[in-house]
């Protein structure tokens, strides 16, 4: 007798968790209230310093699908629409092809604002109360209380807090 069905192995709990995380990351990309998105992303592995605090994440924000657990978001953060947060990147010292990838952590501290269409790549920390201007590409860490913008992002000025 010819067996047409493939032999499936037992799917472990870790595999099921990984599949559910990927589904949550895809689901979080779809339209929904800004404050609801953080709960879906938390299930996907994105870390929040305080899940009950106000965190607004706009529509079409793409979180790294390879290492979402390496993204940490603080309290009272706003990430505007169409932003991209990437924790893995090509190692520039690797021969081409094949390319070798590095990965690091993205930390967005308390009180930050990330402008629309910004890209955060490499392993960076955005300091507390900092602003990233719309359309910026962040490749270096940003100190607290500063405003950065541009491609690549550079310091525009200190943020005057009252």
Keywords:
162 residues; alpha/beta; UDP N-Acetylglucosamine Acyltransferase, domain 1; six-stranded mixed sheet; four-stranded parallel sheet; 2 helices; 27% strand; globular
Description:
Helix 1 runs antiparallel to helix 2 (about 35-45). A hairpin with a 4-residue loop joins strand 15 and strand 16 (about 155-160). The chain has a six-stranded mixed sheet, with no helix packed on it. Strands 1-4-9-12 form a four-stranded parallel sheet, with helices on one face. It contains two helices and 16 strands. The mean pLDDT is about 90. The chain has one domain (about 35-155): Hexapeptide repeat proteins (UDP N-Acetylglucosamine Acyltransferase, domain 1, 3 Solenoid), CATH 2.160.10. Helices cover about 15% and strands about 25% of the residues.
